[in-house]
Amino acid sequence: MSQVVPYPITRARKVPASIPRPPYYGDPGPERYEGSDVMPEEIVAKMRVAGAIARDAMAAGAAVIAPGVTTDAIDAAVHEYLVAHDAWPATLDYRGFPKSCCTSVNEVVCHGIPDLRPLEEGEIVKIDVTAYIDGVHGDTCATYFVGEVDEASRLLSERTHEAMMRGIRAVAPGRAVNTIGRVIEAYASRFGYGVVHDYTGHGCHVAFHSGLVIPHYDSDRFDAVMQEGMCFTVEPMLTLGDWHTSLWKDGWTVVTRDLSRCAQFEHTLVVTEDGAEILTA
Ligand code: MF3
Ligand code: CO
Ligand code: CO
User: Fold this and answer.
1) Which of 249, 273, 257, 267 is nearest to 107 (CA)?
2) Which of 29, 129, 155, 223 is deepest in the core (most CB within 10 A)?
3) Is the pTM above the cut of 0.90?
């Protein structure tokens, strides 16, 4: 299996003028979010809508996956689904990102730019979609297979999903957010998988990335305490090798330094009285 290399990127897709843009649209980056990560029920209700659209757009992208299909074609399917449901593709033009979702193949950890590279039998591809609608975001990612994949990749993907679910089951008011990372890392270590440190979960609601950090590894640095109504993502990236990453010259594409394969799953959730409600399930 060969190393992933950059291919040409098609022009940014058009969004009907009738779809409201997020406040950061056209800016080099969003303004620093100073508000709370605890959302009132009326915002959470809107996030259920955004979350369901993101989930279904991701499934629409996944439906076109096959050997020979480009990641640009996945992007087209995601984009069409989002705009048909009155949602803005939150990654489009976000800090200059050129496409309507992220597609990350094999050793690409995250933030892969959809391009004209055809997928090959046996590859894995992560699709990460963020929908913005009615003032809120829903952010979700899953790992998909191109045809049949080797057993190591299949197990990595299954266990990354399980790691995410274990992290989500550790969510409860009164606990520190690093509980999530401790649980995920403990599970991943059983299999010798690397847990990516450089990219984390984040507060996600009216802000795309609020500044709240949700680690997927055990670190005392992240001692923010979860509260009922808090909205954030859990999105572990596990690797078959080492956890260190490097960045392509495009400034976006993150790869494992050792080029080992990486799987990722992501949900956006709200902390409930005694656990979590997944908003992108
Ligand atoms: N959806 C990604 C996340 O989970 C963020 C993508 S930002 C982009 O946080 F600019 F790379 F698109
Ligand atoms: Co996210
Ligand atoms: Co995401």
Assistant:
1) 257
2) 129
3) yes
